[in-house]
Amino acid sequence: MTPNSIANSKQTMTSRWSSLLRYFSSTRGSSGPVAVRVDYAPGAGRGVFAVRDIAVGDLIHTADPVVAHPALASLQKACYYCLQGIKKQQKTGRLLPVTMGSANTARILSKLTPDDETGHASIFCSMSCEDSAAKVFYSIEKQADWSQLHAYCSTHGLRFPLVAKRLARMVASSATSEHVLDILTHVNLSQGIIPDEWKNERRLLLEALMSTTVAPQSFEFLTEDWYAGIIARLHLNAFRVERIDEQDAGDLLAAATASITGDSIVGTAIYILPSMYNHDCDPNVNILWPNNVTANLVARRDITAGEELRITYIDANMPCIARRSSLQQAYGFVCECDRCKEGD
Ligand SMILES: C[S@@+](CC[C@H](N)C(=O)[O-])C[C@H]1O[C@@H](n2cnc3c(N)ncnc32)[C@H](O)[C@@H]1O
C-alpha cells in the first residue's frame, strides 16, 4: 500500500463512519428525540449508548433488516418477505396474518420450484410484501431450482446460506450493494482459509442462480471471498427472529428469553444498528419482534443518558459457566459483565 492509498483508505473509513453516525443520529425512538449514538465501548469495540434518559418499557428505536429469510420450517407459517406470522383459519381454511387480526387474506403464490424437495410454497401476507419481494429478489428466485441448496441446509441445520442466497439476489437486482454488510464485525478465518463447507454452499448458490435467465455478469460479485465475508459477518451479527407467545407479551424478560431459546424460530435477519449492541448477561435492553421482521429495541429498566445499551446474545438464564462458554464459542469473547465477574 502506498502512503496515498493508506490516506485514502483512512478517509473512506472516516467518511463511512461519519455517514453511519449521521444515520444513527437520525434514528428516533417512539417517544421523542434521538435516543442513541454509536461510540467506542472499552474492551468491546463499538457499542450503542443512550443520549438521553430512557424510561423502562420505552421503545428506544425500531430497525428494519438489511436482509432476512424465513426458516425452512416456517415457509408455510410466515410471510416470505416480512416474516409476519400466518395461520390457517380452521373453519374456512383461509390464511390470515397472525398479528393483524384482519380479513386480509394471505395467498399461497407458487411453489418455489415444482420439484422442490421441501414441497413448500411461498406465502405473502399482503400485496405490498409480494410487490416488494418481486422488486428485490423474488423475480430471480422464481426462475431457479433451490432444491439442492435447501436440502443441504436442512440436512446440515444451516440457516445462513438462505440469508446469503437472498442477499445475492438483492445485489444481482441492484436492490442493495455487495458491500452493504462490510461495516459489521466478522469472525476471523483460521489462517485466512475459507472452510470447504462455505465453498460448497457458495457453489450450490451460484449454480442455482446461473440457471436463471439473468446475465451471468450480474453474479460476478459472488466470489468465494464475497461469500465467506457474508457468512463470517452473519456468524457474529445475525438475529434469530422468533414469535412472542401471547402469554409472554406482557413480560419483557420472558419474551426476550423466548426469542433466544424458543424453538418456534421464524427466520434469520441481519440489521446494522442492532448489530452494534454489545452483550451483557444482565442487559438493559430487549430486542423483540412483536409483528414481523422489524425489530423493536425496548428498555428493560430506567436508563440514564450516557449509559451503554446492551442486549443479551444468549439465554441469560443459563448458569455462569454455560453462558461464558457459549459466548466464547459463538462470539469469541470472554464475558466480563458484573454478573459473570460475581460468578452469578
Ligand atoms: C454483534 S457485535 C457487537 C458490536 C461490536 N462491538 C462492533 O464493534 O461491531 C459482537 C462482537 O462485539 C464484541 N462484544 C460484544 N459484547 C461484548 C462483551 N460483553 N465483552 C467483550 N466483547 C463484546 C465481541 O467482539 C463480539 O464478537
UniProtKB/TrEMBL annotation:
Q: Which Gene3D superfamilies does the protein's record reference?
A: 1.10.220.160, 6.10.140.2220, SET domain
| Pfam name, any one | SET
InterPro entries linked to this entry: H3K4_H4K5_MeTrfase, SET_dom, SET_dom_sf
Query: What is the superkingdom listed in this entry's lineage?
Result: Eukaryota
Task: List residues of the SET domain.
Answer: 32-314
Name of the protein in its database record: SET domain-containing protein
Database matches in SUPFAM superfamilies? SET domain (SSF82199)
